[in-house]
Amino acid sequence: MDVQYEQDAGEIKRLQRCINDLVCLLALPALWSGGDISQVLDTLLNTLMRMLRLDLVSVRLNLSVVETPIEIVRVAQSFGPMPPAHEICEALNHSLGDNSPKWPPLLRNLMGDGEVSMVPLPLGLQGELGVIIAAAQRAGFPQQTEALLLNVAASQACIGLQEARLRSQQKCIADELDRRVARRTAELTAANAELQLQVGLLQRLPVSAWTLKPDGTPDFVNRVWLEYSGQTLDFVRSRPDAWISAVHPEDRETASRSFWEGVRSGQGFAMETRFLRARDGTYRWHLNQAVVLRDAEGRVLKFVGTTTDIDDQKRAKEKLRRSEAFLAEGQRLGQIGSYCWRPATDEITWSAELYRIYELEIGMPVTLELIRSRVHPDDVTLIEKMKLVDQAREGSHDFEWRYRLLMPDQSIKYMHAVAHSTRDQNGQSEYMASVQDVTARRLAEEARDKAQSELASVARVMSLGALTASIAHEVNQPLSGIITNASTCLRMLGADPPQVEGARETARRTIRDGNRMSEVIARLRALFSKKEPTTESVNLNDAVLEVIALSILELQKNRVVLCPELADDLPLITGDRVQLQQVILNLLRNGSDAMCTVEDRPRQLVIRTERDNGDRVRLTVQDAGIGFDPQAADRLFDAFYTTKCDGMGIGLSVSRSIIERHHGRLWATLNEGPGAAFSFSIPRTPAGLAHADGIRNIQAPAVTGSAAA
Ligand code: ADP
What we know:
This protein is of the alpha+beta class and 709 residues long. The relative contact order is 0.04.
């Protein structure tokens, strides 16, 4: 009876302990709440070890629960020395295999010092979460209650693990969310800082900047505009066209129209208006530009715009336009065109006037070929001979060029071009040139030359009086010879018998003297005639001697001592003999005139011919007269300049024209002692440039008549 009682009491106690353990196991999830997987496992294994007095408990979690498999082994101290945990796990895994449904409920195995009973408890329905192995050496393990507790522990572990996994996933998600929020916050902070910077920049931009809502109402206007216009932000925002009150009254209508067209069409706008500057009450020109910002669907979000002060530019442009118009007008009045030529690319730009001079359509592309087609064929040949274009391409020279244009109606235009070489910003050679239509001047010069030559002829006729004595002397000699011979002839024929042979001889002498007289008269006629210039081969010494013969009596009358110094080796020259004699005669007469008051020294007049440098000949007439004022040296050659009471001031001017026509030059110098010397130098054969005056490099010495040598 007692035994029975004791058994019952033991059973009751065991059941009570089992219930306690069950309660303890059922409370585990509450303990785990908030914990992670390792805490779940830690508590579970400790609880089982203690509760069931296990010698070994292990747990293996599969990848379905954790990222890397977990294996934990707990061994009781009483179990004696054991291999390392991972070897135990390997041995257990090997014994069980992967297929949980086939696991036996109990395994007996040799481990440590003796036999152990091992209970595999799959986690999850099929053990997909892992496995718990509980092992004890004592016999009868597991008892029924222990098996119950183990199963409850396994299912509690499942719940705990699932929840822990869920929590861990939630934590991961929360962490990720936090990370993203932090990243986004950082991005937004940076964007905000950038935005602040941009707004700051917009406020400080040296132009007025603003934005408009889709209906045209300003929503942002920077400080620059507010300070310029003196308007407040609230005022500008009050209605779409509040800003227009700052526009010049004359511009308001156009400004308003452009503004609303741009806003309503959604295209934005660009317009120029005058805005009032509040600071000084002046209106200044501004450029207003607005572009549109749209959303993904193409709806207008905003208009973004600027208002730029272009008053200075506008004034400069106007000034430029006026000065261009001025220049164009000047070019038109002066018939001066200009062009720019880049030899490297043959790019040619012409001014409008140049098109007009060339009678080409303004703006048509200009090529060297086109220019060549207008230039007179003779001058094209000259240009090609001078290799002008090649020279320009090769180096930087300045050029002066006179040429003719042959227009479609066969009329001729005379041009004078001056080209200056510069470099553009890329260092490429560039020619800037001005071309003047000098046709009118040229025709006037020709008319003047003609008038001068007529005047010269009057002057020559006037000087005829002075030469009468000389002519009388020249003519008198043969004339008295003729008279003497004629009376001798008559006397001989009247003799008885008539002296026929003597009469024939005197008749021959009469004829000879008659011829001499006719030669003298022919020379005089040539000198005083107005015939057209001719070109012939001239012996300058002979021409000098003829002039001397004509003027010797007058010179003698003035007590002039003439000293000819004529070079023996003087080459023949090509030119107009009579014209050159007119020059010589003029120089001799001037020299004689300059000495007419000289009493204290011989009135010596030297006439010298000699070879000059570079195949030229030179003639000098040097007197011992009164000389001239060095200050007036430049004017001696001007037409109508004279210091003589009976002078006309034409001689030197005409002489210079004649010498220049022979491509020579005529100049005057003062002697070391008293008197002056007038010289001319002409090339033996002047290059035959009858019309085009040719091309010369500006750096070459000027070849013109001058008062100084
Ligand atoms: P004209 O002899 O009629 O005055 P020219 O043209 O021949 O005209 O000469 C112009 C001026 O040049 C002269 O009036 C004179 O003052 C000056 N002149 C010319 N030749 C000489 C000379 N040999 N010596 C000094 N002065 C001269």
